[in-house]
Every structure is written in structure tokens, then in C-alpha cells.
Amino acid sequence: MDNRGFQQGSFTSFQSSSSDEDLMDIPETAMDFSMRDDVPPLDREIEGDKSYNGGGIASSNRIMDFLEEPIPGVGTYDDFNTIDWVREKSRDRDRHREITNKSKESTWALINSVSDAFSGWLLMLFIGLLSGSLAGLIDISAHWMTDLKEGICTEGFWFNHEHCCWNSQQVTFEDRDKCPEWNSWSQLIISMDEGAFAYIVNYFMYVLWALLFAFLAVSLVKVFAPYACGSGIPEIKTILSGFIIRGYLGKWTLVIKTITLVLAVSSGLSLGKEGPLVHVACCCGNILCHCFNKYRKNEAKRREVLSAAAAAGVSVAFGAPIGGVLFSLEEVSYYFPLKTLWRSFFAALVAAFTLRSINPFGNSRLVLFYVEFHTPWHLFELVPFILLGIFGGLWGALFIRTNIAWCRKRKTTQLGKYPVIEVLIVTAITAILAFPNEYTRMSTSELISELFNDCGLLDSSKLCDYENRFNTSKGGDLPDRPAGAGVYSAMWQLALTLILKIVITIFTFGMKIPSGLFIPSMAVGAIAGRLLGVGMEQLAYYHHDWAIFNSWCSQGADCITPGLYAMVGAAACLGGVTRMTVSLVVIMFELTGGLEYIVPLMAAAMTSKWVADALGREGIYDAHIRLNGYPFLEAKEEFAHKTLAMDVMKPRRNDPLLTVLTQDSMTVEDVETIISETTYSGFPVVVSRESQRLVGFVLRRDLIISIENARKKQDGVVSTSIIYFTEHSPPVPPYTAPTLKLRNILDLSPFTVTDLTPMEIVVDIFRKLGLRQCLVTHNGRLLGIITKKDVLKHIAQMANQDPDSILFN
Question: CDD domains of this UniProt entry (predicted)?
């Protein structure tokens, strides 16, 4: 990997960039990884990259093994680098073993041991509290600003429409959304509420507020935190697999993402807040990790915390704690031990409890579209449920292909250089097309709530405008009824809404603003499901004597629940886009609170996954990972090709020899020359160049820090000083430069395979151990090296894809 940051800065620069919390200053939102590599094996010269130059101090022959004390920065990782899972877990075991042994010596050490064991649970508590509080703040703010586009409350501008009319004494049940305290913009500006001119004023103000919110969102992201754009789930999956993207989970990203998420949702764009809430929760987890040494100093332990934080994010997004844990396990986590499962459950529980205490929607529920159905489903209805699953799979595959094509066009053309203009154009088109239709004008969460709703006698929605041909005094469930004019009008409006949502979401997801995909996908499926549900309901009403209905649906009975079809359709489309199965069903079950609807949800989710997988193997998040070239090894895919390690390792035949360090014959100047002329992030150490017998592996970052620290603290270290990686260095003759012993930074047990090892095993090793690199030997002699990037490029090549697409772009 190109480690320019470690070739040009002083030793203090290593300390300043050693935290994931620090914001990385990048000029644009696109990240350029094209010159980076994870321990490349070949000796390349990079023009203009030879700036590493350590000055020497030659004063005395005093020898000091300065590595007896740990050096700040040694053992940490560069930006856009992959962590060494094996080393991190080994360090944590050593730390835990030391604490356990000391706990037997004194009471204070015992207390320290107990606090260390309890710190993980305390951290989960803080993450849950902070995530739930931020989610409540986002929900309340987004609800208010969404209503602000249509009017304002004269009793207090901070009240949204619903809260404004709660305490009004002049509200009728039929017109409960209208109260004198709430004024539309036409009432405030021209003192009119009816007529063409008032409509035009309201239309103009709606579009103007939408453009203002979108402009503020994209401007804040571009100026202060470029990493706050998108949903964040593809990057979080990559980070959890061991990759480091400094600043992505930092303080500024958290602040800007929270603010701009409210603005983006309020602008009326076809996006949701659920995906970004996972990013927000992971930012909370990463920042709070710095309060605990155990997690601040160990990247592997920190990723366990981030897995739990992702569960808390989904918990507050959907009000589904169990679904959040399963989502983290199924979709985002790379390493998920049993104790992380327990802690994820606890963090999700605390987050959900915090959000419930805030009660952002005023309905004592965790989500806006909580519903309960009372009519059981019939076996025959599995047929339309499966049809909804097929629709969801087709929509998912279509969306992924078109969205990835558009995002690729954005990255490879001039379009990507003007993110503000792109956001404003899409916002203007969305707002102009959305205002005339009441189902596109309302927020997407409210739309889903409307579609999920099971119509009752008191519902005034057009979707519930049925002809009442029964005796209302009988009580009980409402029977199926003929659709009235309002229902038919709503069907046409919903059909137009479906077309708009399908098209506009393709261009919205991936813009340089926070944008989630859960809610838009669920809206598409819910609309399709409601349309099908109403059709089935009317078919059962007018043709209840048909063979498919007469055995279970008698005249005057409540047979079909259109809201259930909307819920199943929402699950199908979300599953088709994300390819979630188990976690999706549990999330939808927790939304509705009905155990008896699990089978329809399972049938639709599995059908949508099968159909979508038949048309393309990748979910939307995996597709964006591949588009961005992140070094992510998908654990779900099998490698079935019969290639060997020698076919993938470098150097290849006719390539320059592998760049190595010898254990006792290289000077400081020799090592500094290799560092300055190469971009590799590590070097094998051998006994001698002739024998090529492997001794260990040393990281470039550790070498630079150690040499620079030695020049400062060890008198007499000069360019001619010999570097020893052996356990015992020979006596130093008088009047010669002192030696520099660096054995403590040497990895004495690098993972090795023979040249005839099948790549199927090598790929499995990289996946399960999280390796950065693997050395290849033959009869004990070092032959070459295989990096994670080499494995990714080989997998792409075997799949007939462009291997260069793995280059981070």
C-alpha cells in the first residue's frame, strides 16, 4: 500500500493519525485508492515518492535496546489498510492473561480485573443510550421539518402539524387534520386557503423548502464531512471485515450525518433514515470506544463493539431489537463471537428502551407504521404472496443493475464533480412531481403507515372509502365491502406513485447526501401489495361463490386484509434489494406484532431472494462494495476453481525478485532506501538472500517509527548502524556505530503455505482468519507472497471480471 503519510511526516504525525476518530481531510467525496496495496510483493519505484529521509545522530557508542518499552504508534495501522486479526486477537489474549495473573496478587488488581470484564457491558449501555437519544432527536426533527414544507403552527413554530392540532378546541373528527392554529403558507402569505392562486403559492413554497433542505444537506456534507454521504452500510461492512477508513466513524461525521439526515429526509427525496442510522450508531460506538483502553488500543475488539452498535442502529430504526441483532449477524458483521451476540442484544434493548422513553411519534410505539391485523390469512393467499415475492425479486434485480450503472456513470464522468447541482436537480424533479399527488407529497414513512393500515369504521382515508352495506350495530370485524369512489381514485394515485418511486429512487440512492434504501424499497413493495390486496378483496366480494373462495370466504365475512398484502410486498421488495431473509422476517414481525403472519413473510422473502439471485448474485450493499473497490472478501460465496498458490503469488516468472530484509546484515541506510523506493506495507525477513530461509515479517509502519524513535532516543545510531532482527546481537567493536535491535517488532509466526496449496484453501484461510498477507514457501525457502488484494483480483479474474476493478477507486 502506498504509505505516503509515513514517508513524509515526523514521528508526531504517526500519533496524530492513529485514531479512527480523527477526521481525514479529503478534498472531494470520492476516495482514491488507486495507488494503494496491502503489502505488495514486487519492488517498484514510485516517482516523486522518495521523501523518507531520516537524519542521523552520531555521538557515542552507548547501546540501548529502546524496544524494551513500547513505542507509541508501533502495532497500529495506516489509513486504508487492513488490520491483522490474528495479531490483534493474540494481543488481547496476552492482555487478558496478564490482568488475570495480576488479579491474584492484590485487591486493587482484582478490582481492575472486574472492571475490565464489566467495561464491555458499560460500553454497550452508553452506545444504546446515545443511539436511542439521537434517533429520537432525528425522528422529532424530521417530522417537524417535513410538515414545515406545507405550513406552520401559529401557537408555536416548533410544533409539527399533528402536535399543533392536538389541543385545539375547534377540531372535528372528520377534519381532524385541520385546525385554526395550523396555517398553510398560502394563508400566511396571501390570506387564502382555497383557489388556484393559493394552490400555486403552496406548490411554490413546498418546492422552495425542499430545495433549501437539500442544498443545506449536500453543502454541509461536501464542506465538513464527505464521509457522511450515502447509507454507510457498504463501508461499515468493509470496516467490520478489518479495513481501516479513518474519519469514517469520527466526531465530525457523526455530527454532520445527524444534521444532514434530518435535512435529507425532510426534503422529500425518495430515501430513508434507517441505513444512515446504522452509520450513526457505529459512529457512537467508535467514539465511545476511546473511553476504554481495551477497545481503544485493539482494532479487533473495536470491531466487536461496532457489530453491536450496528444492531442498536437497526433497533432504533425499526423498533426491532431482535431484528437488529439478526441484521448485524446476517448482513454486516464479519466476525461475530457469542459474547458479541449477547452484547448486541443488550445494546439493541437499551437503544429501543431509550427511543420508547422519548416517544418521538406520540403513539407509544417505536415506529410510525406499527399496525396490528386481526383477520387470519388463508392457505390460498400464499399464491398472491408468492407473486409479490416474484415482483420484489424482479424489482430488486432491476434496481441494483440500474442504480449501479448510474453510480458508475457518476464516478466516471463529469457528473461526479458537481454533487450539489445533481442533488438540487433530483430534488426539484421529485418535489415538482410529488406535490400534486397526496401519496407522494406525504413522507414515505407516513405513506407506508397508510398502506399498512387495516381500515376501520372511523378511518377517513380515501383508501378506506368503501360502501357500507351492512348493519353497524352487530359489531365485530368489518366484512369485505365494495370499493367506493375514493378507493378507485386512490388506486390511480398509488399506481402513479409506484412509477415515480421506482424511477426516482434509482437516481437518488448514492448521491452525496445521507440516503437509506430500506424505506423507499418498502414503499415500492407496500404500494404494489396494497394494489394487489384491494384487487383480491374486490374479487372475493363480487365472486365469493368461486371455487377458490367458497370454502373459506362466505358473503359478509372479512376475508381479505389489503394491509397485510402491503406488508408482505414491503418485505418482498426490501428482501429483493438487500437479499436479507431471516433478519427481514423478524423485523417485519416485530413491526406488526403478529406471529401468525410469519409464514406469508417467509414465503415472500425467500421467493424474492431466489428470483433476485437468479438474475444477479449481489445485493445492493455488496454491489456498492465492488463498485468502490473495497477489499472485502465475501464469506457467503464459494471458490470452486482448481488453481494453486503458485499461480497467484508474486513475484511471477520474469518479475523482479521479492524485496526482503536480512536478519543481521543490513544497515539503517539500506532499510531506509528500501522504504523510500517502495510502497509496500511490509517486508519478509530472511536469514540471508542466498538461503531465503524465512525468519519473520515486519511492517513498514513499525520499521519507520522504530528507526525514527531510535535516532531520537539512542545515541550514536547512524546510517551505517547494523539492524539486527536476531535475539542476540554480536559484540560491537570499539569505534564503530552501535547496532539497532528490532526483533520486538518482528512477527516471528507469519502465516505460510506451500506453493502447491490449492487456492480454495488459501481463500478460505484469508476469509476465516482475516489475513492481510500469506507467505509462500517451497521446502522451507521463501518463494513469494499472496496479499488480500491478490486474492480479490484472482477471484475477479476467475469470474471473468476485470481484475483492475479491485483497485480501490
Answer: CBS_pair_voltage-gated_CLC_euk_bac, ClC_3_like
